[in-house]
Amino acid sequence: MPPVLESMRVVEITEALAGPYCAMLLGDFGADVIKVERRITGDHARGWGPPFAAGESAYFLAANRNKRSLTLDYDHPAGREVLERLIATADVLLINQPSLASLRRRALDPETLLKQYSRLIYCAISGYGLGPSVKTGQPGYDIVAQAEAGVMSFTGEPQGEPVRYPVAIADMTCGAYAAMGILAALLARERSGQGQFLDMALFDSQLTWLINIGSNWLNCGKEPVRWGNAHPSIVPYEVFAGSDGRNFVLGVGTEPLWLKLTNLLGEETGWADEPRFATNAQRIEHRAELIPMLRERFRRRPAAIWLEKLALAKIPAAAIQSVPEALGQAQSVERSMIVEIEHPLLGIARSVGNPVRLSQSPPTYRLPPPLLGEHTAAILGELRYDENEVAELRRSAAV
């Protein structure tokens, strides 16, 4: 079966992570993604480093496979003509600008383009949405979204400062939600024949991550506090260490799991029949008594021994692995989660794969992250520019 999005063209005018990640996900399923970049410098992420691999930013390499790069100055009259021809061929336009005003100045706003191209799926990604809202037009970065959406307020140790999650979760979730929205819009277009406008915001995407914590406040008036690695609603559910000092995590979210754990730790503990620990609610109430006893018990043997026993008992637990360990482990390899694509400078470009596994139309990895402007001539040819016209576009610095 051919890739499910093989006939779709995505024009991506985005930078950094949220938009590029969204476009990459669509490219993994066969979409022809054309990444429109500024001349000379390209996507900001091309300069984000170190580290660099053969002069290419590792950050850029992470979110730009399965794309072709077109360099373009669309404020130049001839460059604008190129962009208009390109958008006319697109099923999806993915763009990031902070406000409608900035888009209207270039006549790239959704109202204008959807009048011209009624089947276009127009997806805008910004910090706070294109409006109306009190913060429309303000720049948005991942750390700002994590802070303003409340996520950082309960991340970190109880007596410490709020902590930013080190991976750009606001960007990645916004990109993933945008891809989901685009797929829904494409399905709707199959039924109605009409395109539509998607207004995606980093803030909204990060606010959804409050999930049960948000529900605690909305329905019970309970405000979260920082628990470090512990869980406010499940005990035990945190980090422990073996006699060798190796850390591991343990999650006991049901009463059957608790009984399994007490059996594993030994009948002599008496915990299976201890009323203070009989239910999760009681274990939460007596957390301060239970957790130190568990820590003392686990310190009697190396972590590997405990993890082997926990695995045999089907109790959720895992060693806290380093990034090299996580990427190199058999599970990652067996699930085909490490992607290798031939690259003109690196030889092989490696990245973390797409987690969506379809039995009939799985993701494909066809193109490495592009060099800046690598496909400009080929794309212009597809837009019916001849060699002389391409040369003139280059001479005038339109491309």
Automatic annotation (TrEMBL):
<protein>
    <submittedName>
        <fullName>L-carnitine dehydratase/bile acid-inducible protein F</fullName>
    </submittedName>
</protein>
<dbReference type="GO" id="GO:0047369">
    <property type="term" value="F:succinate-hydroxymethylglutarate CoA-transferase activity"/>
</dbReference>
<dbReference type="InterPro" id="IPR044855">
    <property type="entry name" value="CoA-Trfase_III_dom3_sf"/>
</dbReference>
<keyword id="KW-0808">Transferase</keyword>
<dbReference type="Pfam" id="PF02515">
    <property type="entry name" value="CoA_transf_3"/>
</dbReference>
<dbReference type="InterPro" id="IPR003673">
    <property type="entry name" value="CoA-Trfase_fam_III"/>
</dbReference>
<dbReference type="InterPro" id="IPR050483">
    <property type="entry name" value="CoA-transferase_III_domain"/>
</dbReference>
<dbReference type="InterPro" id="IPR023606">
    <property type="entry name" value="CoA-Trfase_III_dom_1_sf"/>
</dbReference>
